């Protein structure tokens, strides 16, 4: 996996949570999502520590998971709606989502524990875990770690990022950006009104054939896209015969609505500048002291985490990041103490189009200065 001339010194991983149910609960008229039986058995509940303002997660099944310590810069609020008879709540991680991250964890075990980069025993010193404050991202990270380590003897610490390093939420603090985003989305909805109506009519006619419910109607383009995406991700056959062109139109519109502003570097800086700056700071810190821990950072986030990262390095293929999508940044050191970055997206090694200098003409290894220059061009002034 690694070249003998380069030594791996740091791994930064960003992943989207696993398969979930539709966010707004529109699945009920379409059919119940009874896909949370296994996940529900491992769901976490909240317990306040009498000695701290931090919230502590304790698993209901102690012989499966150790207590998970949650760190937060403010009091962390957690709400959980338990499913009935394994029926999922809106936006909940499903059993398919659990397995997606569990299998990803097993792949990380092979790539980084099997190669002796990390110890076989979990250690908070070796791995730094961060998640957004959503139940599905926290649980996804939990399943990833369970797949990655066969034995966990120490409590797992997860740092909760409260609307900070995830652009869709961090940007809410900037009024200029909020106004620009609202204006942009309105413009997209207006300019694509005809396409949205076409997709909406087709979608609702499609549903009537399966449900017989003529009173149930959805017109929001993202709601439509979300329902189809969740159905496919969870292996439900309802939309197997859905017109591919209609789906592609919905995806194209949603990408433009959510991420179209990223083409403007100033807007990107607001949306994802902190995320990229934080990545560079971690790499810089490791370069200054290669022997210092941690060796790996894992950030459990969303589609709105993955897409901006792909965009900044010219790796976006204008496809919505799938459930469990992951991007890995590997930092290597040469014998001459020069440093290089290699990127993997969904286990595929990619070359960075915007990188001009490489290691031994291997375009998958980008010289650190070029890498940092790309980052700075999108984060300066943030």
UniProtKB/TrEMBL annotation:
Q: Does the keyword Hydrolase apply?
A: yes
Which terms does the record give in the GO molecular function aspect? phosphatase activity
Q: Which UniProt keywords apply?
A: Hydrolase
Q: Cite a single Pfam family from the UniProt record.
A: His_Phos_2
Top-level taxonomic group: Eukaryota
Instruction: Tell me which family the UniProt entry assigns to this protein.
Output: Belongs to the histidine acid phosphatase family.
Q: What is this protein called?
A: Acid phosphatase
Organism annotation: Edhazardia aedis (strain USNM 41457) (Microsporidian parasite)
Upper taxonomic classification of the species?
Answer: Eukaryota, Fungi, Fungi incertae sedis, Microsporidia, Edhazardia
């Amino acid at each position: 996996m690694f070249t003998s001339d380069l030594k791996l010194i740091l791994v930064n991983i960003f992943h989207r949570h696993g398969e979930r149910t539709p966010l707004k609960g529109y699945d009920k008229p379409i059919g119940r999502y009874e896909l949370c039986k296994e996940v529900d058995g491992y769901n976490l509940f909240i317990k306040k520590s009498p000695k701290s303002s931090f919230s502590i997660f304790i698993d209901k099944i102690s012989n499966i998971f150790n207590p998970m310590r949650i760190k937060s810069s403010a009091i962390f609020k957690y709400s959980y709606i338990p499913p009935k008879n394994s029926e999922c709540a809106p936006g909940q991680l499903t059993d398919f989502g659990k397995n997606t991250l569990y299998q990803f964890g097993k792949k990380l075990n092979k790539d980084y524990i099997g190669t002796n980069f990390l110890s076989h025993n979990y250690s908070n010193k070796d791995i730094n875990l961060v998640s957004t404050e959503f139940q599905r991202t926290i649980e996804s990270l939990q399943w990833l770690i369970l797949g990655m380590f066969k034995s966990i003897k120490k409590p797992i610490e997860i740092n909760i990022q409260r609307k900070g390093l995830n652009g869709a939420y961090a940007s809410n603090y900037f009024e200029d950006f909020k106004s620009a985003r609202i204006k942009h989305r309105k413009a997209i909805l207006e300019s694509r009104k005809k396409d949205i109506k076409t997709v909406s009519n087709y979608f609702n006619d499609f549903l009537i054939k399966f449900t017989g419910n003529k009173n149930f109607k959805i017109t929001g383009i993202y709601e439509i896209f979300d329902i189809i995406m969740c159905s496919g991700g969870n292996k439900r056959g309802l939309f197997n015969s859905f017109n591919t062109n209609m789906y592609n139109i919905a995806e194209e519109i949603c990408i433009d609505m959510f991420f179209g502003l990223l083409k403007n570097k100033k807007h990107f800086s607001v949306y994802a500048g902190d995320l990229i700056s934080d990545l560079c700071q971690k790499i810089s810190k490791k370069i200054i002291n290669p022997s210092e821990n941690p060796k790996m950072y894992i950030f459990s986030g969303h589609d709105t985490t993955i897409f901006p990262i792909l965009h900044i390095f010219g790796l976006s293929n204008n496809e919505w990041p799938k459930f469990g999508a992951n991007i890995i940044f590997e930092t290597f050191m040469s014998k001459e103490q020069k440093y290089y970055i290699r990127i993997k997206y969904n286990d595929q090694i990619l070359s960075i189009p915007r990188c001009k200098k490489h290691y031994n003409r291997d375009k998958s290894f980008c010289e650190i200065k070029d890498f940092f220059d790309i980052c700075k061009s999108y984060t300066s002034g943030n």
